[in-house]
Fold this sequence. Notes:
By secondary structure, the chain is of the alpha+beta class. The chain has four helices and six strands, in the order αααββαββββ. A six-stranded mixed sheet has the order 2-1-6-5-4-3. The N and C termini lie far apart (about 35 Å).
Amino acid sequence: MLAAHAIAEAAKGPALVAQAQLAAYNARDLDAFCACFADDVEVYDFPGVLSLKGQEAFRARYAERFRSEGLEAIAVHRAVIGSRVIDHERVWLEGRGKSAPVDLVVIYTVRDDVIARVDFIREG
């Protein structure tokens, strides 16, 4: 069983940052979303292929994605291990009624209260 202080620390650490970015993603609030990520954020596709680096490239990618009014993501399961948050996420790119969900694992590495690295693991 976890001690109360460990639960309290987890609630204001990496898990909170991960939840804040998920809420901003679902609201399609680009400024709030990008504020959850480091200026030098790196995004990788498994197995370790760098797909973008830096806030400018990150913002450009999500500005395009946020144009979809039906965009939605949920964390099906979340685990926190130190500075890393591992989410099993389910994403609808065009909305629940318009597109099939995409399941993926996302590993968020938090540094200085922002996400410094994102690793996506997708099927196929």
